[in-house]
Amino acid sequence: MLSAAYESLDYDTCVNSAWLDEERTMGYKYVVKKDVARWLVVLLTAVLTALVACVIDMAIECLSGYKYTWLKQYTDYGVATNLMIIPFLLWAAMNIGPTLLAAFLGSYIEPVAAGSGIPQVKCYLNGVKVPRVVRIKTLVSKALGVIMSVLGGLAVGKEGPMIHSGAVIAAGVSQGKTTSFKHDFGFFEYFREDHEKRDFVSAGAAAGVAAAFGAPVGGVLFSLEEGASFWNQGLTWRVFFGAMMSTFTLNLVLSAYNGFPGKLNYNGLLNFGKFDDLTYEIWEFIPFLLMGVMGGLLGALYNHINLKLTAFRMRYIQKPWQKIIEAAVVAFVTAVVAFLMMYLIHDCRAADTQSSEYPIQMFCGIGEENAAAAIWFQTPERSVRSLFHDTSDSYHWSTIGVFFVCYFFLACWTYGLGIPAGLFIPTLLCGAAWGRLVGMLLCLFFPDQKWVDEGKYALVGAGAMLGGVVRMTLSLTVILMECVGNITFGLPLMIVLMVAKWVGDFFNEGIYDIHIQMQGVPIMAWDAPPLSNNIYASEVMNRPVVTLKSVERVGHIVNILKANTYNGFPVVDSIPTSENVCYFKSFGTLRGVILRSQLTVLLKHKIFNENAEVWQNSKVDIHLFRISYPRYFTLDEVDLNPEDMNCTVDLRPFYNPSPYSVVTCTALPRIFNLFRALGLRHLIVVNDNNEVVGMVTRKDLVKYRIWKHRGQMGLEELVIYNNVS
Amino acid sequence: MLSAAYESLDYDTCVNSAWLDEERTMGYKYVVKKDVARWLVVLLTAVLTALVACVIDMAIECLSGYKYTWLKQYTDYGVATNLMIIPFLLWAAMNIGPTLLAAFLGSYIEPVAAGSGIPQVKCYLNGVKVPRVVRIKTLVSKALGVIMSVLGGLAVGKEGPMIHSGAVIAAGVSQGKTTSFKHDFGFFEYFREDHEKRDFVSAGAAAGVAAAFGAPVGGVLFSLEEGASFWNQGLTWRVFFGAMMSTFTLNLVLSAYNGFPGKLNYNGLLNFGKFDDLTYEIWEFIPFLLMGVMGGLLGALYNHINLKLTAFRMRYIQKPWQKIIEAAVVAFVTAVVAFLMMYLIHDCRAADTQSSEYPIQMFCGIGEENAAAAIWFQTPERSVRSLFHDTSDSYHWSTIGVFFVCYFFLACWTYGLGIPAGLFIPTLLCGAAWGRLVGMLLCLFFPDQKWVDEGKYALVGAGAMLGGVVRMTLSLTVILMECVGNITFGLPLMIVLMVAKWVGDFFNEGIYDIHIQMQGVPIMAWDAPPLSNNIYASEVMNRPVVTLKSVERVGHIVNILKANTYNGFPVVDSIPTSENVCYFKSFGTLRGVILRSQLTVLLKHKIFNENAEVWQNSKVDIHLFRISYPRYFTLDEVDLNPEDMNCTVDLRPFYNPSPYSVVTCTALPRIFNLFRALGLRHLIVVNDNNEVVGMVTRKDLVKYRIWKHRGQMGLEELVIYNNVS
Fold it and tell me: Running DSSP on this structure, what letter comes out for residue B550?
């Protein structure tokens, strides 16, 4: 099912007289100025994104430090007094408290801030207008919320929200105004169109990835994988520049924060620590491949469970208070699981083998500490690092096994809660756990081999699991390579990710795509469905078409705008030719297309023929249309007198005189390519005499979708529903 | 000026009845099979590309080994007997010999194999058909030629030709037939169209980069930077897979060749050696930035000299024998320069500081060796490695200074000779030389600082120089990062490359673009020229248009095909409407477009209405059109009897019924976007009644070009000339 609630972005520019007038007055200096402004916006975006990421990073580190120090004291005290209920209750409270705050932000304050944000950014880059996704309020809710989520000890990461933050910042900076605070700074007005804004958002998303993982190249590739249809070289460079500057700023601030100011290649800046010597032998590709398969299977299972859970949530957990309660329950269960593991598993290790910052002795001997507690007594990101880098006798296999099973289901339950929370870290942690188990198993069989390194297998497992869940390959490989600071290990990572994707795709789709589809977002695939050349424009198009004449009565325009929700109206010559020549009813010869937004601006400013001398002197230019972007007037905001209704409007200077159009016998893939490559919002279908017979929009195309499951494949037609809730 | 000799590739598919017939008979199994075949082709391409690269690598290493061992013996003998003329003559002969062979291959055997191949691949990916560029003969000439060029001691590299090799192999494997050997293997017939072939060529180019530099991610980004307008996710993954498999195969073979079988992360596989600890301080950005400026200036100078030289060559050195003589002269001069440097510069160093494999004592004391000889007595690639990694007292500054000046001009003179030869390595070597000089200078000012590392500055200089010459940023940064196996140094490299590009772009264009423009290749820019919205389709289009009717007499078709060289003909309804309604003469209502290649196939197989029962039974399908791709019949190959001339052909099942068209008032940028995004070859211009009034081809668009030099900017209109030579 497709929701009718989502509108499409319009990547196409409307070359009307107003636009041409502006272009004529501006010289090449204007071009250069605009170009410099673009670089400036990207730089600003990158720096701000990095700073937001720093704030999130430092807040989490600092607050978690307090939390675990305090917990440790009480746990040690509890062990000493044999009164374990006190640290348990304290832990539960310290999980539930921040989680409630996060859930409040994600449910009451700004629901679109819930989740990882990557699906929303993906939709936006794909050309779907997701309401409120790039607002400052969203950014604040997201940033605060994710700090609280991580602090709440949930199985969440901060990376997805950082990427979303980058997108919001880019959208904000490039527009030079904020809707949340209702302030227009007045600069960058020429970037106020979907085309430019979307380019900046892709740069912002890349800067977000770069800040989240310290992976500038990965960031560029992420933007490319998610929004590549509108890519070009100039944009690529700006995106790369932004990603690099973002990493630079982040490293600069964090290296100072960590006490090594200016030491930009300080290893502590790598999220998951540096692997210095990731060597591998050729025969290791066999376990790698098997781990890829495993990752694909586990990922498909994860996605399947989450799909069912999401369906359940959409039906039964709709109200904000219900979401808050669910989040609290998850926080509590997480505390219970963690505490029970620590309490029941008696896995004692020498204190110096553990890398945990808050080692807990529990019931172990002196100089020993509890390995289960070591995994839990830190943020998930640190746990990933521990599993990657701890020495080979840091954990008993059963500790890791139990941890993996518990964490897998916890992570699966957590994703989709009404809190701002990312998915990358918990998935990596699950994968690192079973990957380390594989490493231990190999250790058992090949005890004295140099190539057996548990940390290496943890990394492979983490990659396999993440690949199985999110089904990205190129960007993910590079992100992982950059995260661990190692290039030579790229090949095994790529193979593992690719196998995991293939195996996973056999069962279902990536987690982000599942969530996007559940929301009914009309997202466009990369290619038209195969074997769809026998579907013609005449079958795809919407009819009847509401058209306007070149010179139209105001009352008629108002009625049309009131009567339907279309966003584009073909402008036609009034006299349709005789019916008998064409198969489809003609609505007149196509002259151009005018948008609802343009019509409302014309009405609002009363640009009628009857008072032409007034507005022609005051120079109606493109500025008038830009200033109200992106939230144009609704009809209610346009106040017209009864006498205005009889005025006429000459649309000719304002409509787009050369809209893209296709004939009725055009096959679906050709229409699809036009939409995909040019980012269209409307496409006019004409007959052989250039008379309008129909109109195609994004949803008309997206409803034809190919499904592929378990080796089967077919074409399905989705239903478009009006979201009434 | 634009040459009319270059035809455009056709990325658009012709959805006619024959195509639909095929699609109807094929189910989703066919889709899956085609998809599997695509992966297979990419895998095969990658492996073969890597093997070719291995052969080139090993041949160069082996033959150079013989050459320098022999030369060393004679030099040592010459020093002992004080008869230096013998080693000099030997050196000159051993330079000139292989160079002559390379020049013979690049001038007589296959002229398109001369040069680096990157401009040709770039043109192909851009959508220009460069004749013979993806033939097996080209591949063989290129591979043999580049071995000889490097062996000839010239200032050349093997990387560009490896990339070209990858492109050729991809085109060959994907088509399942060879034109050079006139053999059709019969498989992969469904890939015989420009669309598919070009996708494979981009994968092949990426595999080539991956094999040349051991840089898989860089390879993907290279393909992206050069051919990104037709990018999509599925293709990206295949390209990435190919690049990874190519690196893997190369590393597998070369690690075995070097005596470490299976050790895939063996450092010797990195072209320029591994930098383990590339640390940098923040204030080092100041020298880095200055070096970027320097690189831009030197690159612009290099390009300027080479531009003048190329113009000179195009005028005076046209004949193959002239080219051979020029190559021999350059080889001789190179030998002279090298010998003189070694003879005259008395820079003696302790033997253990030098990394040269063939150390020459010359007139130095015992246990010492000549530093100038150390740079020259190896392949340029090894010299780069030496400059990157030799200890700080390996060279006197004057040795490197003289070497830089000589090599700069030699490299500049060498590029553009009629030999297969790449540009990357010599440019890197120049840059490494002056970069090391900068490092030495800093050493002088800050003698005891840990951060001063001559090798690091050599790397930065190499990057700056290469960036200043070729003006790539994203892919080059990643290639350099992968080449030296270090991620953290990515940021300085990017900054340096970007500054070098900006500074260089102020003066002229990248070397590849210069050569492409000198050839008059109609290459499309990334964006339409700015401020060109006031240029309309009616000004851009070609008129009059040669049109055909739906049912046409054979004699008329033959006459039309003979009378002009157009490749696409609009099919129209016969009766033009009255003249007075439109500004431009109408050629009838548009029905579709038929290609020259389709017409010749119809004529060749006599698919006339008069013998319809014959060919309709034998099932005329898409196979008939594919089998003759890409070299369709010429009119001479079609033998028609006089009575055939009066037959008629029904074009309706064969033409494309829904060609892309625009109205006369469409602005240039909109047309440009259509061409760029959809890879069009023809675009029909119609009036408001869908009647054909003109036609736009690639050259009509490309002739509007923006120039930017020294802060100035403007629009120029190129002249299209018919290449008569």
Answer: S
What are the tokens at A526?
């990369």
Coil vs helix vs strand at B592: strand
Q: How far is CA B77 from CA A204, B85, B90, B343, B344, in A?
A: 65, 11, 12, 14, 18
Other C-beta atoms closer than 10 Å to the C-beta of B543 total 13
DSSP state of B357: S
CA distance B387 to chain A (A): 23
Q: Which residue has the tokens 């004295």?
A: A448
CB A671 within 8 A of CB A680: no
- Chain B contacts in chain A segment 333-352 (CB below 8 A): none
Contact A24 B232 (CB under 8 A): no
| Strand ranges, E, within A145-205 | 177-178, 183-184
Q: Are B455 and B439 in contact (CB under 8 A)?
A: yes
Cα–Cα distance measured from residue B343 to residue B82, given in angstroms and rounded to the nearest whole number: 12
Of A151, A153, A178, A135, the C-alpha closest to A57 is: A151
Give the tens place of pLDDT for each residue, B428-437.
999 999 999 9
- What is d(CA B241, CA B206) in angstroms, rounded to the nearest whole number? 10
The pLDDT of residue B151 is above 70: yes
CB atoms closer than 10 angstroms to residue A314: 13
Looking at the complex, does the CB of residue B28 fall below 8 Å from at least one CB of chain A? yes
Confidence of residue A354 (pLDDT cuts 50, 70, 90): low
pTM: 0.92
Take residue B104 and report the two structure tokens written for it.
Answer: 């013979």
B449 touching A (Cβ < 8 Å): no
Most confident of A50-54, A618-622, A628-632: A50-54
Whether the per-residue pLDDT at B64 is higher than 50: the answer is yes
Return the minimum-mean-pLDDT range out of A557-571, B423-437, B576-590: B576-590
Picking from B12, B260, B265 by the largest number of A CB atoms within 10 A of its own CB, the best residue to mutate is: B265
Contact A438, A287 (CB under 8 A): yes
Q: Are A126 and A227 in contact (CB under 8 A)?
A: yes
HSE-up (13 A, CA, CB side) for residue A326: 23
Residue B725 has pLDDT above 50, yes or no: no
Q: DSSP labels for B414-466?
A: HTTSSSB-BSHHHHHHHHHHHHHHHHHHHHHHSTT-TT--HHHHHHHHHHHHH
- The ipTM estimated for the assembled molecules is 0.90
Residue (of A444, A573, A431, A553) closest to A504 by Cα position: A431
Strand duo A568-572 + B177-178: pairing:
unpaired
Residue B268: predicted pLDDT:
62
Which residue stretches of A446-486 are H helix?
Answer: 454-470, 474-484
CA distances from A298 to A403, A497, A708 (A): 15, 13, 19
Chain A nearest C-alpha distance from B701 (Å): 18
Closest Cβ–Cβ partner in B19, B27, B233 for A533: B19
| Euclidean distance between CA atoms A673 and A659, whole angstroms | 16
Which residues from B are below 8 Å from A714, CB to CB? 28
